[in-house]
Amino acid sequence: MGYTTLRQCVDDLERNGMLRRIDAEVDAHLELASIQRRAFRAGAPALLFTRVRGSSFPMLCNLFGTRERLHFIFRDALRAVEGVLAAGADPADALRHPLRSLGLLPALTHMQPRRTSHAPVLEHACSVADLPRLVCWPEDGGPFITLPLVYTEDPRRPGLNASNLGMYRVQLGGNAYAPDEVGVHYQIHRGIGVHHAAALELGRPLPVMIFVGGPPSLTVSAVMPLPEGLSELRFAGLLGGRRVAMASVPGFELPVAAEADFCLWGHILPEPKPEGPFGDHVGYYSLAHDFPVLKVEGVRHRADAIWPFTAVGRPPQEDTVFGDFIHELTGCMVPQVFAGVREVHAVDAAGVHPLLLALGSERYTPYEAERRPREVLTAALHLLGTTQTALAKYVIIAAHEDAPGLRARDVPAFFRHVLERTDFARDLHFFTHGTTDTLDYTGLGLHEGSKLVWAVAGDARRRLGTEPGALPPLPDGFGDVRVVAPGIVVLRGPRNGSARGESDPRMEELARAVGAWEAREAFPLAVVVDDAAFAAASFDNFLWVTFTRSDPAADVYGAHAVTRARHWACEAPLLIDARVKPFHAPALEEDPDVERRVDALAAPGGPLHGLL
Fold first, then answer.
1. How much is the pTM?
2. Assigned domain for 525 exists
3. What is the pLDDT of residues 25-61, one digit of tens each?
4. What share of the chain is helix, strand, coil (3-state, %, to 5)?
5. In a domain? residue 552
6. N or C, where is the chain less crowded by C-beta within 10 Å?
7. Domain boundary pick from 308, 327, 352
């Protein structure tokens, strides 16, 4: 029934051919991250590196690199997890089938964390400097923990019941950190923020415990968007098939996960310090900004400690598998959490938070002759009003009733459905100054930008084209028009030099020009980019460029655009300016020398041959 330790999981995967030990010496500075990214792309086994330059600890990557491996790791508990979550989504069904619900009782007993006096993780002391120094990208500000499990409790209600376990990156050195300080970067709209705010209100420093490793269920639970009232520790017990063991730490307020591989603890200092840069999962660097600093008071590890890590970058990466697994487990709960919503999909290829697709019900006015977006618009506001979906920048929602077989995860089909039905005079709704994802640099500033709700319902109003035909004369610098998919074109634009929040007059010229395009109704979406060939090479490229490089209020234009009663409207085509702007964060690029070293490791006769 599940794994008590990470070592048990590693041994089991190795016995079953899902893990390979690598005894050749490797470097944690850039090299291991490059290996991880390649291993994920190749569908490789998990990799355990036993000789890491400058570290006395083995390092493990690609543990969660495939859906099949995730299912294998949690094979004993998946059915119970699905049953418990489904029962929560539909309590009436549980009442209708009480005998089936009784079968969930053994799993429910695993959800109560247990106290223990035996904590292997506390047996050996070390310093922050002794921990593995993983650096993933050339411009990173220092070494980071990439799979940290950050545990806090509500200072007003201390205890496990009001605890939060989240995955917030931890910088182990660099910048202005003292040897006993680490940076704690938590993004906006995260549970630790509530605890930190409460501690500040009470005038107390916030105690923080950071675990690394331990039962794999802890890592997955830390990234789960769990419903209110279900703590990550409880879910970890359910997913892991055994109660999570928690132990007291002498002289410290918070407990530790007894079977973790490493732990470090301390209190948040009153003043923040610059943290970052860090190559992040949207495919760009998150730049240096002030974030909380943890004064480290203790570092411990177990005797057989393993340091798990991942590397993030432009999707897809290993965290993509996390996202798919989360959708698989929690999809049944969407209608319970979001009234009127049947399905959601945070599009990984677009950087997750920049683009959210949703299907909702449209039942408000069934007596009207023509269906139009009413309930789906309300549903979109639900999505922007709670949980991490509130960070979405573009929310595109369609009515389930118009195409019952449509799925939000079929992204090209979803776009085709939406573009066929959009009334550009009615269906676009802007929020011009709101809260955005910490990692998004397209808006007005850190945590600030705009949002667009694009809600459609009703019959198709246009037939999408695949041949754009002749375009009218375009302004200087625009050209190289390429079709991405039916109804969608990209075109090259001149370099954008606009400041934050500023529109580009040349885009207004372009909008006037394409207003005379004979095929404009057949191509209702046109995106201006720096490299049209790259953006049109795949639908994933199109998604990444379009939604990670645009702010709706500043970068959306349209033919014959007008504003009536504060509502912006246009005709086809809608234009999105997805060129790089001067204030954007730089895209991630790999170090050529490191890539050549990894090429050699993967060449015939090398220790990674056949794996990468």
1. 0.93
2. no
3. 999 999 999 999 999 999 999 999 999 998 999 999 9
4. 30, 25, 45
5. no
6. N
7. 308
